[in-house]
């Protein structure tokens, strides 16, 4: 097996008496679409927050491409290639779709301080923005204000914004939340096609089991901060502990 893109060693986190990560040891390899699932309160969002720098672990190490990033702030992780999206739509509603994607591209080039008017007409920037918007299916909406998009398209725009930071590892926190079936199908297909390009590795927190089993090459199940299962879709479906945890939940395993 090749060197992991990210490795988590003995990760522990507690909020008072509530343990949200207990001795977690995981490796994420390039190009493998991974889903993280678990009941409410399992520690899924806390795990993403620690990976991306929003909150620190109490103990343990986070390695990225062989480098210890446990104490690195968010912006330095982004520059290394560790990015995320959020459960709640996080776009600039009063800017156009194009400008929303342009901002992180300029930031990656250390030119975020420049006025839009000075750079929007630069061919390389324009082409990169439009290439990303085309990948997520929003190229026809480039000139619209972000707040004019449907909820589902705003979620797609958020993915585009994350892609504009040129991530090597992208955590998506409930990317299909609030989407209708057609929009969910679009984003599923988009993630699959982007993954095939081998530029970005996706780790997804998702409650929609249809999405999880249709998309994932690997499924990690958390419960009370512990990893109780780590394997393929079939291994997850037949895991007795997973079925026990989901007993009574409206989830078809």
What does this structure look like?
The protein has a 6-stranded mixed sheet, with helices on both faces. Strands 2-1-4-5 form a 4-stranded antiparallel sheet, with helices on one face. Helix 3 (97-108) crosses helix 5, helix 3 (97-108) runs parallel beside helix 6 (151-164) and helix 5 (123-136) packs across helix 6. The two termini are 29 Å apart. It has 253 residues and is of the alpha/beta class. It is globular. The longest helix has 16 residues, at 181-196. Helix 7 (181-196) links the parallel strand 7 and strand 8 (201-205). The mean pLDDT is 87. The chain has helices spanning 44-52, 74-80, 97-108, 116-119, 123-136, 151-164, 181-196, 209-215, 233-237, 240-245, and strands spanning 6-15, 18-28, 34-37, 59-64, 67-68, 82-84, 169-173, 201-205, 218-223, 226-231. The protein has 2 domains: 1-81 and 166-253, 3-Layer(aba) Sandwich (Rossmann fold), CATH 3.40.50; 93-165, no CATH class.
Helix fraction by DSSP (H/I, runs of at least 4): 25-40%
Q: Approximately how much beta-strand content do the residues carry?
A: 15-25%
Number of strands: 10
Number of domains: 2
N- to C-terminal separation? 29 Å
CA-atom Rg in angstroms? 18 Å
**CATH class group of the largest domain:** Alpha Beta
What sequence of helices (H) and strands (E) makes up the elements? EEEHEEHEHHHHEHEHEEHH
Strand-pairing-aware structural class: alpha/beta
Mean pLDDT: 87
Morphology: globular
The fourth-level CATH homologous superfamily of the largest domain is P-loop containing nucleotide triphosphate hydrolases
CATH T-level fold name of the largest domain: Rossmann fold
In terms of quaternary structure, the protein is single chain
* Number of separate helices: 10
């Amino acid at each position: 097996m090749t060197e992991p893109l990210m490795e988590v060693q003995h990760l522990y986190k507690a909020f008072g008496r509530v343990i949200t990560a207990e001795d977690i040891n995981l490796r994420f390899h390039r190009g493998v679409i991974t889903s993280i699932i678990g009941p409410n309160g399992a520690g899924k969002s806390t795990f993403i927050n620690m990976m991306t720098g929003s909150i620190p672990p109490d103990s343990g190490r986070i390695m990225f491409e062989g480098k210890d990033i446990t104490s690195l702030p968010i912006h330095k992780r982004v520059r290394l290639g560790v990015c995320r999206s959020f459960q709640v739509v996080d776009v600039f509603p009063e800017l156009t779709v194009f400008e929303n994607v342009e901002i992180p591209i300029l930031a990656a080039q250390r030119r975020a301080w420049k006025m839009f008017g000075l750079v929007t007409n630069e061919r390389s920037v324009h082409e990169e923005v439009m290439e990303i918007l085309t990948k997520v299916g929003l190229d026809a909406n480039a000139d619209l204000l972000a707040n004019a998009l449907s909820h589902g398209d705003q979620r797609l725009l958020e993915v585009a914004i994350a892609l504009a930071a040129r991530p090597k590892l992208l955590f998506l926190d409930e990317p299909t939340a609030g989407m209708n079936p057609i929009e969910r199908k679009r984003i599923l297909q988009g993630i699959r096609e982007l993954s095939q390009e081998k530029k970005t590795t996706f780790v997804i927190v998702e409650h929609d089991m249809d999405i999880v089993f249709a998309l994932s090459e690997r499924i990690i199940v958390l419960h009370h901060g512990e990893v109780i299962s780590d394997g393929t879709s079939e291994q997850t479906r037949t895991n007795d502990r997973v079925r026990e945890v989901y007993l009574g939940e409206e989830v078809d395993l």
